[in-house]
Amino acid sequence: MADIGHMTLEVSAGNTVEVPLKRHATAGYVWQVERVPSGVVDLEIVVPPGTSSAPGDATMETLKLRGMTPGEHEVVLILRRPWESTSAQELHILLRVR
Fold first, then answer.
1. What sign does the dihedral 40-45-49-51 (CA atoms) show?
2. What is the pTM of this model?
3. Cβ distance 43 to 95 under 8 Å?
4. Residue 50 pLDDT more than 70?
């Protein structure tokens, strides 16, 4: 069963908010976008250049979200290995766009 996390973020329409994400890339885990509503126009997961780690160490990525339509929008990310059908973690983000 996946570990499920929840967070709420607020942003002004047209602005970007960033969320740090931890993953174990050397173990094959990748953050994937499961659901993105139409009110969120840009969604990007960025890995800092030159990021390297020892096998099994966690690496940091940054999720960038830009909301355009005022209201509440739920973005869902999953952390899983591409060859597995179940996720290790889910992250539900309620983005409140003002």
1. positive
2. 0.82
3. no
4. no
